[in-house]
Design goal:
430 residues; alpha/beta; FAD/NAD(P)-binding domain; D-Amino Acid Oxidase, Chain A, domain 2; 2 domains; nine-stranded mixed β-sheet; eight-stranded mixed β-sheet; 33% helix; binds flavin-adenine dinucleotide
């Protein structure tokens, strides 16, 4: 169970099967570091790890425990690329920066799997490929576009048509898709715990159960007040993503938090496992409110999708996921569900992650739009390069002034309407 979480979101398979947690020091009194990183998900851990590689004296401050947020709860799908396709990236960022970003995001899964191998991180990782599945004509067009644009980049993507996609997934629900062998899967909580332990061995101080309560900026340094002590640092990196709060100065004002939920069946029989995702692929589909699924190491089917904004909405979405499993995979019969959980995803208006400079000089890394496992890791390296004074024109991702999204107090009213509208469009196109 995820501690200090709403029970509806807390019964996670990853917490139930986690390796030993990170043992850190307790922050007491006042400590000094070059860099303080706030938020112990993959973003924060990756920044800390890459700082340690560069010999930068860094500490990581986490409100709960490492991986408590989205990083320890996600689908563990390691997906290449950004939500937007290469041509859109070129248009949005210009051709020079666009080229760097496309290469960075396309190569992010390789970067993750190599790190795991190099540092022997035990997290059930396998790079068997990611399928983006589609049902509608619109989905097929999206996939054809993805295929053409990534092929132009030299990526090894293939088009899948029925019946091939149906036998690779084990369901006749989808009629087409693409297979990108760069993708894969891992146990997300064990990945972030493992990377944090490597960072710690390399000298990063990790303070857990250490909520940041305020950030004071002075001329040459910051003072960060935590529940049990303070940290003085030259630079502050905010990696709270969709979990920050206004009251503590840790909220990312450039993102909209929305919930994603997942369910996990009881372990399936070997006969059933021979038919569902038999080659170990992970899948997400092209719908606006997408579904994503995979098999876990212990043979369970995990299915995820958009959550709600209230407990009632979340419960409805959890039941809807169970119905989707029955509909897509009737072979599972009257299967039991042993886990259901969820967490917050950070959406940005332009669908791109952002490295943002706040007015007080704090730098934040956020906004992965539900595709953060690989991007957090690689962008953490970019932020460490920035801290190490690499000139911004030589970085592989731009640093921009924070662009706040207005009317944040109304998001909880707007999201259900936006979700309803997207579901309507998905159903019309089906
Ligand atoms: C259910 C779900 C499924 C997903 N599936 C996938 C997937 O399959 N593939 C994929 O690529 N992406 C997926 N994502 C997205 C991915 O998980 C995120 O993009 C990524 O984990 C973001 O990592 P992060 O480190 O930026 O943020 P988080 O992991 O959310 O970490 C933020 C941390 O900040 C801490 N914090 C908050 N306030 C404070 C404070 N005041 N002081 C100290 N610490 C604080 C929190 O406790 C938290 O641990 C999914 C997300 C969810 C929720």
């Amino acid at each position: 169970m995820i501690k200090n979480e709403n029970p509806l979101l807390a019964n996670s398979i990853w917490s139930a099967t986690a390796n030993d947690r990170v043992v850190g020091e307790q922050l007491s009194s006042s400590k000094q570091f070059d860099v303080a990183i706030i938020g112990g998900g993959i973003s924060g851990v990756s920044v800390a790890f890459h700082c340690a590689l560069l010999g930068i004296n860094a500490c990581l401050l986490e409100k709960e425990t490492i991986g408590w947020g989205a990083s320890g709860r996600n689908g563990g799908q390691v997906i290449p690329g950004l939500k937007e396709l290469p041509e859109d990236v070129y248009k949005f960022f210009g051709s020079k920066m666009g080229k760097k970003i496309v290469a960075l995001a396309g190569g992010a899964p390789d970067y993750v799997f190599n790190l795991i191998k190099k540092y022997k991180i035990e997290c059930g990782a396998s790079q068997n490929g990611w399928i983006q599945a589609s049902v509608s004509e619109n989905g097929l067009q999206k996939n054809r576009s993805l295929l053409r644009q990534w092929k132009e980049q030299g990526a090894p993507v293939h088009l899948l048509l029925a019946p091939e996609i149906q036998s690779l997934i084990g369901s006749d629900n989808y009629t087409h898709g693409i297979l990108d062998p760069r993708g894969g899967k891992l146990h997300p909580l064990n990945y972030v715990l493992g990377l944090a332990k490597v960072a710690q061995k390399k000298g990063v101080a990790i303070y857990q159960e250490c909520p940041v309560e305020s950030i004071e900026s002075n001329t040459n340094y910051y003072k960060i007040y935590c529940a049990t002590g303070q940290v003085i640092a030259q630079k502050v990196i905010l990696t709270t993503n969709a979990y920050g709060e206004d009251s503590t100065g840790t909220r990312n004002k450039n993102i909209i938090p929305v919930q994603s939920v997942q369910v996990a069946t009881a372990p399936l029989s070997d006969n059933i496992l021979k038919t569902i995702l038999p080659n170990g692929h992970v899948v997400s589909d092209t719908r606006r409110l997408l579904k994503y699924f995979r098999i876990s190491e212990d043979g369970r089917l995990l299915m995820g999708g958009r959550g709600g904004v209230s407990n009632r909405g979340t419960s409805i979405q959890i039941e809807e996921l169970k119905r989707s499993v029955s509909k897509m995979f009737p072979i599972t019969g009257e299967v039991e569900y042993e886990y259901s959980w969820g967490g917050n995803v950070a959406l940005t208006l332009d669908h791109y992650p952002q490295i943002s400079l706040f007015d007080n000089g704090v730098i934040s890394l956020s906004g992965y739009n539900g595709r953060g496992v690989a991007l957090t890791t690689i962008l953490g390296k970019v932020v460490a390069d920035l801290i190490n004074n690499v000139p911004s024109e030589d970085l592989d991702f731009p640093i921009k002034k924070l662009r706040s999204i207005p009317f944040s107090q109304f998001h909880n009213f707007i999201i259900p309407f936006a979700t309803w509208y997207k579901r309507l469009l998905d159903n019309i196109e089906r």
